[in-house]
Design goal:
Strand content: 5-15%
Number of strands: 9
Largest sheet: 5 strands, mixed
Oligomer: single chain
Distance between the termini: 74 Å
Number of domains: 3
Length: 590
């Protein structure tokens, strides 16, 4: 028995079956279940390239999450980096990353693997929800559109907690519907869904609680409000959520680190940006969510609504999508990372309505995708030329073009040699995939497979050119290795390195603690040295031993002989690692 099956669906199918008999019908060749699973697994590895996740250095907020994970302590859930509680962060994500660090994952790989595994888990949820709602075809299409959405690929390979938080939110929504409207067990529905809501809070904070609860406000009520809310499971569920909030909040509030909602900014000069967001958000989301947005619109078309094979579950997903969409549209601080929350429910909806769309517009959909295929082939040819045309000719061409102002020529051309074979292979495979799509569609390729092939081909171009460009320079890793070599035997796991409050160096200090212990598989050891931020050099007076300190000026610890070592860190900003010997007798207070 299907979990989400509506008893009215058979009647609706019979009433409207005759409508399609007089229309030109596009028929797809259905793929076998085993073949579809193998295609989806292969596509997932192409789209997210798990073995390439650790190549790019830490960037953006990843530089904070890595030291948080290194300093994570289950007995103290504060998110601490360099001895300081980092405001507006939550412990679930760094705690999971810290487990991977203990196993031996690199700083970058550990952060990003959690995000990619979260996407994998969401794809399993989409598969199971689609299968139970309609059937295998819906499961395949929903999973395909979820993993191939551009915004999911773009944000999913970054080491941020958003994907993990989204996984918990999606799990909470599906659990609420499964045990509530579908099975009528409201105690379990509230209990399980609030448990996942608590996990979402423990991962991304108040945003997760709000996004989880917002669609539930607008749900249609199959029974009265009171009969649904007056359940012990609701009160136990709220208690679970409060428990997660308290075990996060009490340690932080005692430390004076966080006040709820204190960090929500609003500046007068943001108003024009907000107007731009209001105007461009629908178009931006349409482009970022391709190819999902091509298949998602029938779910919101009134002409298709009477043909819905599972109207109750569809209405549930539509409520989630519409409420969250308008919230993100009107919310002045919405970030593109927040848009990802719309992808899973939209993907499941698109899968449920896929058969309606392709029967009416299958040929037009393939025609549109073929146009994109040809554009992709042009990009792949450029990628091949990039690796095969001599460097001198490329330099002359780029120097005369606008690209010379947008990219660093040495960096752009520098990675060609070491990435030559992989780059040519990926570009060649991309051309082959796109050519096969053009030739075999729509005769042999269903529309979902055509879209998935297009996305995989373009992803191969990303992994062949753009990603190597981003990963070519590994300055922080090289600098950390140079500092360790300069410190020599002074570098040890029990040492403490101080830094002044105006110096971040989060990425550098993470690499400073990291050393590879094996090449295959690539495993790492972490020296648990302490990085401690100080506000004033006078704080060092009570320390008798040697002192290492990052500073952008010459620090003068009281009672110390002159520095014995000065290691350059960033000479442009005049930042050095200074070493001062132990205090002279009587020079420091113990």
């Amino acid at each position: 028995m299907r979990l989400f099956h509506s008893r009215h669906s058979c009647v609706r199918d019979c009433n409207f079956q005759g409508r399609f008999q007089s229309m030109p019908i596009y028929e797809e060749k259905r793929q076998g279940k085993r073949k579809c699973v193998l295609i989806l697994i292969a596509a997932f590895f192409v789209l997210y390239m798990p073995f390439q996740l650790g190549e790019r250095e830490l960037r953006w907020d990843e530089v904070y999450y890595a030291p948080m994970a290194l300093e994570m302590n289950l007995l103290n859930p504060n998110t601490i980096a360099h001895g300081e509680v980092i405001s507006s962060n939550y412990p679930m994500y760094p705690w999971m990353v810290s487990i991977l660090y203990d196993i031996g994952a690199s700083p970058e790989f550990g952060l990003r693997l959690v995000s990619v595994l979260s996407i994998l888990a969401m794809s399993v949820i989409a598969w199971e929800a689609g299968r139970r709602a309609v059937g295998i075809q819906t499961a395949v299409v929903s999973t395909s559109l979820l993993i191939s959405s551009i915004i999911m690929i773009d944000k999913g390979v970054d080491g941020y907690p958003d994907m993990l938080g989204l996984l918990f939110i999606l799990s909470g929504w599906i659990a609420w519907f499964t045990y509530g409207p579908a099975r009528g067990n409201w105690n379990r529905a509230w209990l399980v869904s609030f448990f996942f809501c608590g996990l979402a809070f423990y991962t991304i904070g108040w945003k997760g609680v709000f996004i989880f609860g917002l669609p539930l406000i607008f749900m249609r009520r199959p029974m009265t409000i009171w009969s649904r809310l007056n359940k012990p499971g609701l009160f136990l569920g709220v208690a679970i959520l409060v428990f997660f909030i308290l075990i996060w909040g009490i340690p932080r509030w005692l430390a004076g680190a966080d006040i709820p909602f204190r960090n929500i900014p609003f500046k007068p000069d943001d108003f024009l940006d907000y107007l731009g967001h209001i105007f461009f958000f629908p178009f931006e989301f349409f482009l970022r969510s391709l190819p999902l947005s091509i298949f998602a619109w029938p779910a919101f078309c009134a002409a298709y609504t009477p043909l819905d094979r599972n109207p109750v579950f569809s209405r549930f997903l539509k409520t989630i999508t519409v409420s969250v969409f308008f919230f993100l549209w009107l919310y002045p601080f919405a970030d593109p990372r927040d848009y990802v929350i719309l992808v899973p429910p939209l993907a499941i909806l698109a899968g449920m309505n896929y058969w309606l769309m392709v029967r009416r517009l299958g040929f037009q959909t393939h025609h549109l995708l073929k146009i994109l295929d040809m554009a992709g082939i042009a990009c792949a040819v450029l990628a091949l030329l990039f690796y095969t045309v001599p460097t001198k000719l490329w330099s002359a061409i780029l120097m005369k073009s606008m690209l010379s102002q947008l990219v660093q020529l040495d960096k752009l051309l520098g990675f060609r040699q070491e990435n030559l074979v992989i780059g040519i292979c990926f570009a060649g495979i991309s051309i082959l995939i796109l050519a096969m799509s053009i030739r075999n569609s729509p005769r042999k390729y269903p529309a979902w497979l055509h879209a998935l092939s297009l996305t995989c081909a373009m992803s191969l171009l990303f992994w062949s050119v753009i990603y190597p460009y981003q990963t070519y320079e590994k300055r922080q890793r090289q600098l950390a290795r140079q500092i360790r070599e300069a410190m020599g035997e002074d570098f040890r796991s029990s040492m403490t390195i101080y830094k002044e409050s105006n110096i971040p160096l989060y990425s550098l200090c993470t690499y400073l603690q990291c050393a590879r212990r094996s090449s295959f598989p690539p495993l790492y050891n972490y020296e648990k040295i302490k990085i401690k931020k100080i506000d004033n050099v006078k704080e060092l007076q009570e320390i008798n031993g040697e002192i290492y300190i990052f500073s952008d000026e010459y620090p003068i610890p009281v009672g110390r002989p002159p520095h014995t070592r000065k290691i350059p860190v960033n000479e442009e900003k005049n930042i050095f690692l200074w070493k001062f010997p132990a205090a002279e007798a009587g020079g420091a207070v113990k």
